[in-house]
Design a protein that fits this description.
Strand order of the largest sheet: 4-6-5-7-8
Helix content: 25-40%
Number of strands: 8
Largest sheet: 5 strands, mixed
Shape: globular
Number of helices: 6
Order of helices and strands: HHEEEHEEHEHEHE
Length: 193
């Protein structure tokens, strides 16, 4: 599918998201994208087709038609598309669509330990470090959603993992500041990899 190159209604966006999610049945795309970012297959193999999917996304970028392999994951009834080339492409299926502020939870429901992260790549990187931990993950999608995170159940232990990214935004490093705001609200521990 070609992503729209202009704003469309919320219903049209959701319809497009659900269509792309249903048709995103290319695990090799997700595997190539994630291993290219240094994440080992053992960190995500069991999630392919369930939590994360792969698709070839076509879109118009700066007036030019492009096509890239993409990893897709759902945030509530919406999805975030990650391509290795243009982060701006996420604007079509990402941030403008996060009106319902959904979160992507995965891991055992009976876990008393929750790790909250900004992006899926963060969750998979943490998961690869300690694959045998009985941990549930919550992926927020962006720092704005991280700041507004609400747990899906009670947890004995909450860790908030935040990237220490340089940013020219004010304040610098919005992801870390969002994690600190969330820590004030929920308690828990901030972890900076």
């Amino acid at each position: 599918d070609i992503l729209p190159d202009k704003a469309v209604s919320k219903k049209s966006k959701i319809d497009l998201v659900l269509k792309i999610w249903r048709e995103a049945n290319h695990p090799e795309f997700t595997r190539e994208y994630l291993t290219g970012r240094g994440i080992p297959e053992s960190a995500f193999e069991d999630l392919l087709g369930k939590v994360i999917r792969g698709a070839k996304i076509k879109y118009i970028y700066k007036g030019k038609y492009e096509e890239h392999l993409s990893m897709i994951y759902l945030l509530g009834l919406e999805c975030l598309v990650r391509t290795p080339i243009h982060s701006e492409v996420r604007a079509y299926l990402g941030k403008p669509m996060l009106g319902t502020k959904g979160f992507c939870f995965f891991g055992p429901l009976d876990s008393n330990h929750l790790i909250v992260v900004e992006g899926m790549e963060n969750a998979l990187s943490v998961r690869s470090m300690e694959p045998n931990r009985n941990v549930r993950f919550a992926v927020c999608g962006d720092e704005g959603n991280l700041r507004k995170f609400i747990p899906d159940q009670e947890y004995e232990k909450i860790e908030i993992w935040a990237d220490d990214d340089f940013s020219t935004e004010k304040p610098p490093n919005p992801g870390l500041h969002a994690a600190l705001d969330l820590q004030k609200k929920l308690g828990g521990t901030i972890v900076r990899p």
